[in-house]
Amino acid sequence: xxxxxxxxxxxxxxxxLGVFLMAVKVFFVKGGSFPTGHVSDVPALRRKGIQCHRxxxxxxxxxxxxxxxxxxx
Length: 73
Fold this sequence. Notes:
- The structure is a single chain.
- The protein has 2 domains: about 1-35; about 35-70, no CATH class.
- By secondary structure, the chain is mostly helical.
- The chain has helices spanning about 1-20, 25-30, 45, 55-70.
């Protein structure tokens, strides 16, 4: 029982320390914010031409619509 409690306390302290260290920039840097995780905001992915799923689906639908219009003529 005592060992379990010690392990639990150590685990909680490590979790709190980890969250605090990840949030240092957000809390203590002026204008700090969490980094965005959106695909279009990552320069390396933009250079490779990788886009978000929604943009890719929209472009595919636009291409399909154009193709259908050409075939109708």
